[in-house]
Design a protein that fits this description.
The chain has about 625 residues and is an alpha/beta fold. It contains 24 helices and 22 strands.
Length: about 625
């Protein structure tokens, strides 16, 4: 037999030890590199943004506009590739960009990129439009080059000095509609018993569970609201384009007939009716903008800077080294109990911020900027009471209503010193309801039943597999009636109105800001700046500073945002941003939205002061 080579095992052991050591060294080196990258990202300054002289500021309105944007989670940052293009746009940032650009000699024009604008509430559009007008007042032109314009896009485009449309594009105006989905018949087929207890004949948030169409009361209320909102939208667009308002109404009603004269060419129809100034292809549009502000030869387009990059070099608003004289607190989302994440709901954090401002001697007045459909009476009362305590301490409280401040949102606001709303704010909806579904018939159809024993008539009353307990129903009826009575009385006290007068405009009716002022629910029509000025004047201040008061991001949030929002995030994003993964993400977000909605409906034993059909968006 050949003699075995005894050196082989030793050789392999040596190789194994070498590989093990190499693996350890590699892991340690990678760990050190990660730490170095994190430190560089955290300690290094922001990337310097160059703004070429004469540049056009491009507003990329490619995401929803919100009063307060939720803090990004790591998954969002990764999928965005370190960029915030998919994240909602914070309204205050948009206004700050436009204000600063108007004073910036390096900015020669404003270009609105509206092709992917998803639409916004009428009050939000009006606020952005007013900021565009202030930019124009500095003498700088505003231009739009669009592939196509829907109604919400056209509203903002109508402010432009130069409005160009692609020859293959269209402008489609349709007016407003409010069309909730009704599923009473589907609920019947599923054998779900929906127990509804409401106060107010116009409190129609629960109608989709009970009917397959609008009640006469809800129809009349909704028609009055959208007619009022459309009047403001139509009049603004017409004034911007130098038309009579009635011209737009006639155009909408006769579009099909007029389209025959242009052989179905909506772009030519828009040109002939004066909706746009000229028809230009994309390349011709870029050349026209280049003539306006100059060319960037390297990028082969007009000289420009996007609003997100520009925002990074705009000085932060307010004074960061001390408290402002007037504190602005944002309440964005449904009003619910417990802690709610920034921009996703109103809860204990809002109460805590109001208390913080009340106890800060440097703060002389408080402005609550509210954009909410309402929520639970209990959570709404917590906010109202905290604002009232600030008033008792000697600090004026002024409400600035955003796109929506209805039901519980109005409850929280009503006893403040002054209420400001936009003409197109949706507010009111004074009323309370409870929604308690039971599924005993649904499960019985599957052969599943619930039975047992109890010590009292109300024991086990919350079992969804049994009919609504009559004792529990009576208790909730009384709770709804009492909560509604409190709501009406608080409005009467806060607005200094007789109970009968409040009841005449309550019962769940919803109002535009313009109509709300006429019936006494709102003091003044004006934006956030007007509310801040009023708060300062009530505090006796001749000169003042104002700033947002909010919870700072946690160290973890800062690290993740800085790390994943930079080059590291862009590298990882390229591995995760496949269309399949993105579809999964979108499905997850949609499911999360539905769960939040369900939680809002069933919170606090079903008792709600919320306006579920108040969110009107112009699209």
């Amino acid at each position: 037999m050949p003699k075995q080579d005894q050196s082989q095992p030793g050789f392999f052991r040596s190789v194994g030890r070498f590989l093990s050591a190499a693996r350890t060294v590699t892991a340690n080196v990678l760990f050190v590199l990660v730490i170095v990258v994190i430190l560089l990202l955290l300690l290094g300054g922001e990337e310097r943004i160059e703004v070429p002289d004469g540049s056009a500021l491009v507003l990329h309105l490619d995401a929803p506009i919100m009063e307060e944007v939720p803090r990004p989670d790591p998954l969002e940052l990764l999928l965005a590739g370190g960029r915030d293009a998919r994240r909602p746009i914070e309204l205050r940032d948009l206004l700050r960009v436009l204000e600063h650009a108007g004073r910036d000699d390096r900015i020669g024009a404003l270009v609105l990129d509206l092709d992917r604008f998803p639409g916004a509430a009428p009050a939000t559009l009006r606020t952005v439009g007013a900021a565009i007008e202030r930019f124009q007042a500095t003498g700088k032109p505003v231009a739009v080059v669009a592939d196509g314009l829907g109604q919400s896009q056209y509203y903002l485009a109508s402010y432009a000095d130069h409005l160009y449309l692609n020859p293959m594009g269209q402008v489609l105006l349709t007016g407003l509609a409010l069309q909730p989905t009704f599923f009473a018949s589907a609920i019947d087929k599923l054998k779900v018993n929906v127990n509804v207890i409401r106060a107010g004949e116009y409190k129609s948030a629960v109608e989709p569970f009970l009917r397959d169409d609008m009640s006469d009361e809800a129809r009349a209320d909704a028609q009055r609201l959208i007619d009022d909102l459309w009047e403001g939208i139509r009049d603004t667009m017409a004034a911007n384009r130098g038309m009579q308002p009635e011209t737009l109404d006639v155009l909408i009603e006769t579009q099909a007939e007029r389209l025959r004269t242009t052989q179905g060419d909506l772009a030519r129809l828009a040109l002939e009716t004066g909706l746009v100034d000229e028809l230009l292809s994309r390349d011709a549009g870029r050349n026209r903008l280049g003539q306006l502000v100059g060319f960037d030869e390297e990028r082969e387009t007009f000289r420009q800077i996007g609003h997100r990059d520009y925002l990074r070099q705009v000085p932060a608003a307010g004074l960061r080294d001390r408290s402002p004289d007037v504190a602005v607190i944002v309440a964005e989302g449904a009003i619910m109990g417990g802690e709610q994440a920034r921009g996703t709901g109103v809860g204990e954090a809002t109460v805590r911020l109001i208390r913080q401002a009340r106890n800060d001697d440097a703060i002389r007045a408080i402005v609550l900027r509210i954009n909410s459909p309402g929520g639970t009476p209990f959570a709404s009362e917590l906010i109202r009471r905290e604002l009232e305590l600030a008033q008792v301490s000697g600090k004026p409280v002024v409400i600035s209503m955003g796109a929506l401040a209805a039901s519980g949102g109005y409850w929280a606001s009503v006893t403040s010193d002054r209420i400001y709303a936009d003409a197109d704010t949706i507010t009111g909806s004074i009323g309370v309801y409870a929604l308690l579904p039971t599924f005993e018939e649904s499960f019985a159809a599957l052969g599943i039943y619930s039975d047992g024993v109890a010590t009292h008539s109300i024991s086990g009353a919350g079992n969804p597999l049994q009919p609504l307990n009559p004792v529990l129903r009576e208790i909730i009826e009384q709770r709804v009636a009492e909560a509604n009575r409190q709501f009406v009385e608080i409005v009467a006290r806060g607005r200094d109105m007789p109970i009968a007068e409040v009841e005449a405009i309550a019962a769940g009716r919803i109002w535009s800001g313009r109509a709300a002022q006429e019936v006494g629910l709102v003091d003044e029509l004006g934006d956030l700046d007007a509310a801040v000025t009023a708060a300062a004047e009530l505090a006796g201040l001749e000169r003042w500073t104002s700033d947002y008061v909010e919870d700072p991001p946690t160290s973890r949030e800062l690290i993740l945002e800085r790390l994943l929002g930079g080059s590291v995030g862009r590298i990882l994003s390229s591995q995760l941003s496949s269309s399949r993964f993105d579809r999964v993400r979108r499905i997850g977000l949609l499911a999360d939205e539905q769960l939040v909605m369900l939680e809002q409906l069933l919170d606090s034993d079903g008792l709600q002061a919320i306006c579920a059909r108040c969110e009107v968006s112009v699209r």
